[in-house]
């Protein structure tokens, strides 16, 4: 599928009344550490605390009235569960959320507070998909995938689009990579709204399926996902991977120690709450700082939904 500038502009206009235009923050101290000019697009200040509000809203807005009346369903243990619940609530649409029974109570409480109707199931992908399919059959709800959905991908791309409107001079945009929706949308925005702006992904060494996928040219999976970046444990999909292959220059892997250090730097220096997944992008810039010295770099801070009972510090 070809996506042009006009498609992204249309999506941005459509979702504008339902989302926040998040701030772009800088830190002189972090610039010194990275030896570059960094611009943080703070989606931790987005409604429900993450960029996923954008894609969820766009996906629901593109449904027919009949589909909206029957509702939407997804399976997610975290941010997309919250995003779809809140987006659905703001548009008067029922939201059925399949969550693994092992999901933190704080996340379940957030989903319920946004009006999501939770069905719990065992944590395997198979159980999640089967439970979502059962709800679809019983309710007629439309399934919306958290990352492998064209409407979701275009919605997520609006964060980078806004960043480039504010900072058109960026040489690079770094984004964390989980299911691939954010990086695919970001890469499209960099292509259409940047001036020779390159999109680079960042991924934990402990969940490096996207790094391997880019090398092999086909979607790879993870056998283990032993990382504190809990939002990045999912894998790429057939709708977002073609855009990643075509428009993402590379993916940089970082260790758990590097993620924790970057997370600490953001909390201490910028005084903002971000989740571990968000720190992966800064960790990649710092790790490869010799290559990116004196460049202008955008970083998508993907979200700020942390379990305060379970911090890695």
TrEMBL record:
Where does the signal sequence lie? none
Please name the SUPFAM superfamilies in this protein's record: Tryptophan synthase beta subunit-like PLP-dependent enzymes (SSF53686)
Co-factor requirement: pyridoxal 5'-phosphate
Which Pfam families does this chain map to? PALP (PF00291)
Q: Name one GO molecular function term.
A: magnesium ion binding
- Tryptophan synthase beta chain-like PALP domain ranges (all copies): 16-303
Q: Which family does it belong to?
A: Belongs to the serine/threonine dehydratase family.
Q: What is this protein called?
A: Pyridoxal-phosphate dependent enzyme
Q: List the source organism.
A: Christiangramia sabulilitoris
């Amino acid at each position: 599928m070809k996506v042009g500038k006009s498609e992204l502009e249309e999506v941005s206009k459509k979702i504008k009344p339902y989302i926040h235009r998040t701030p772009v923050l800088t830190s002189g101290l972090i610039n010194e550490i990275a030896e570059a000019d960094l611009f943080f697009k703070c989606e931790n200040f987005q409604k429900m605390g993450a960029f996923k509000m954008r894609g969820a809203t766009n996906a629901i807005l593109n449904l027919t009235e009949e589909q909206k009346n029957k509702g939407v369903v997804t399976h997610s243990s975290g941010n997309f569960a919250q995003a779809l619940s809140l987006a659905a609530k703001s548009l008067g649409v029922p939201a059925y959320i399949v969550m693994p029974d092992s999901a933190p109570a704080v996340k379940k409480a957030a989903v319920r507070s946004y009006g999501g109707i939770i069905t719990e199931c065992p944590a395997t992908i198979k159980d999640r998909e089967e439970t979502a399919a059962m709800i679809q059959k019983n309710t007629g709800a439309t399934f919306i995938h958290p990352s492998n959905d064209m409407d979701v991908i275009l919605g997520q791309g609006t964060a980078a689009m806004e960043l480039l409107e504010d900072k058109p001079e960026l040489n690079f945009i770094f984004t964390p990579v989980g299911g691939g929706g954010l990086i695919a949308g970001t890469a499209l925005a960099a292509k259409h709204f940047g001036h020779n702006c390159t999109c680079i992904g960042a991924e934990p060494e402990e969940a490096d399926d996207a790094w391997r996928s880019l090398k092999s040219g086909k979607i790879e999976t993870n056998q283990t996902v032993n990382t504190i970046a809990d939002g990045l444990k999912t894998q790429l999909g057939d709708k977002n991977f073609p855009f990643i292959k075509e428009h993402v220059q590379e993916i940089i892997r970082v260790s758990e120690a590097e993620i924790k250090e970057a997370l600490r730097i953001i909390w201490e220096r910028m005084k903002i709450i971000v989740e571990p997944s968000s720190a992966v992008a800064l960790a990649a810039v710092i790790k490869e700082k010799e290559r990116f010295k004196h460049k202008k770099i955008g970083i998508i801070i993907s979200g700020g939904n942390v379990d305060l009972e379970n911090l890695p510090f």
